[in-house]
Write a structure and sequence with these properties.
It is a single chain. The chain is built from 17 helices and twelve strands. It is α/β, with parallel strands linked by helices. It has three domains: 3-132, Rossmann fold (3-Layer(aba) Sandwich), CATH 3.40.50.2300; 146-310, P-loop containing nucleotide triphosphate hydrolases (Rossmann fold, 3-Layer(aba) Sandwich), CATH 3.40.50; 313-390, Helicase, Ruva Protein, domain 3, CATH 1.10.8. Helix 4 links the parallel strand 4 and strand 5 (98-101). It starts with a strand and ends in a 5-residue tail after the last helix.
């Protein structure tokens, strides 16, 4: 049963509203003034508050301010016998759902209460869906190794702060997943996490991507566009592969971090932004600094907290857990029962080199599930994984003796000339 709190210093008004609302199957509680109202809101949960403006101890406008601070989603309908248009406008500006003059039109009051409850329900449903979508997108960090334990501990400590984080690790180790969990456990998790792959964007477009551009600022700028910094306002900006960012873009990112302001390409207006930046790279940025490819001052701005994500080769004890985790996900995607991996198959997987890390392991698990029988055996691993890996290693060793692509092409051509007689 919906619960309504009626707040008015006039006992007759409270009694009248209670009788009407109870006839409409609402549960009603009363508060005699603003202070009593705040006590009851702290102690109980209400669907709507009907709030008088003029009251002793604490008036309705002051109560409205406090409700917006403590319970911003709670619908409030303001009522008053002394108000005017200015009072109505002020109450709505403060966050009231509606304003009704005394004596209230009962039909309008009932319709307003229903509308307020509908809006409240929509807000609640939206939040539930957002949490479900967020949880769906953020995959668990799987592993019981010491290195993974240290990472999860660091995430728990760092996430609630606004400290910038630099994540370092090889390709495929899960740097993006670490960034997602930092955002998920932060106070910004109801705001967007905007991702930018700096390596995938041409150097001439990276500044427009990050800071936006004004119409006509370059040939293809047919309209103004907000950049990633603006889109991530009050949320988190994840700069993946930041080691591949151009020096000119690095300078602008540094300025944005120092001043919390950006300027669009082709514009002169400064735009304030409140963004938490998380960066990731597979490069040794200290080495890149020595080579002149990365700004040292930007490095120190980004590397407040450094998280090193280990390669899969350094945490092979986690492979059994990862195999089981990916098998469940992949089989569910294909709509089949979970396919078991024998102990020997898992041990065979632990022997592999995993140069592609977690990303490579997942692809291999998918391949084995598709190609194997009722269960995945060590023979399947040898046939579909180990054998191909050995061939790749042999090719890698063979091509290491060449200095450039031209030498490789000459070698392949020479081999073709030697064996073309037996090629059908």
């Amino acid at each position: 049963m919906p619960k309504i709190l009626v707040v008015d210093d006039d006992k007759g008004i409270r009694r009248t509203l209670r009788d009407i609302l109870e006839m409409e199957k609402y549960e009603v509680q009363e508060a005699v003034d603003g202070l009593d109202c705040m006590v009851k809101i702290k102690q109980g949960k209400y669907d709507v508050v009907i709030l008088d403006v003029k009251m002793p101890k604490m008036d309705g406008m002051e109560v409205m301010d406090k409700i917006q601070t403590s319970r911003p989603d709670l619908p409030v309908v303001m009522i008053s016998g002394h108000g005017n248009i200015d009072t109505a406008v002020e109450s709505v500006k403060k966050g009231a759902f509606d304003y009704i003059q005394k004596p209230p039109d009962l039909n309008r009051l009932l319709i307003t209460i229903r509308n307020a409850m509908d809006k409240s329900s929509l807000i609640t449903e939206k939040k539930v869906l957002q949490r479900k979508i967020s949880k769906k997108k953020t995959i668990d960090i799987v592993g019981e190794s010491e290195a993974i334990g240290q990472i999860t501990k660091t995430i728990d400590l760092v996430a609630p702060t606004d400290a910038r984080v630099l994540i370092h690790g090889e390709n495929g180790t899960g740097k993006e997943l670490v960034a997602r969990w930092i955002h998920e456990k932060s106070g910004r998790n109801d705001k967007p996490l905007i991702e930018v792959n700096c390596a995938a964007i041409p150097s001439e477009l990276i500044e427009s991507e990050l800071f936006g551009h004004e119409k006509g600022s370059f040939t293809s700028a047919h309209k103004s566009r907000a950049g990633k910094f603006e889109l991530a306002h009050e949320g988190t900006l994840f700069l993946d592969e930041i080691g591949d960012m151009s020096l000119s873009a690095q300078a602008k990112v540094l300025r944005a971090l120092q001043e919390n302001r950006i300027t669009r390409v082709g514009g002169d207006k400064e735009i304030s932004v409140n963004v938490r930046v998380i960066a990731a790279t597979n490069k040794d940025l200290r080495t890149e600094i020595a080579k002149g490819n990365f700004r040292e001052d930007l490095y120190h701005r980004l590397a407040v907290i450094i998280i090193n994500v280990p390669s899969l080769r350094e945490r092979k004890t986690d492979i059994p857990l990862l195999v089981n985790h990916f098998a469940k996900i992949i089989c569910k995607e294909y709509g089949i029962g979970v396919k078991a991996f024998t102990d020997k198959a898992v041990k065979e997987l632990q022997k592999s080199n995993w140069s592609g890390n977690i990303r490579e392991l997942r692809n291999v698990i998918e391949r084995l599930i598709i190609l194997s029988g009722k269960e995945v055996t060590d023979k399947d691993v040898k046939d579909y994984v180990t054998g191909s890996s050995q061939q790749s290693n042999q090719l890698e060793k063979m091509f290491m003796k060449f200095d450039n692509l031209e030498q490789v092409q000459l070698y392949v051509k020479d081999q073709y000339e030697q064996y073309k007689g037996i090629i059908v």
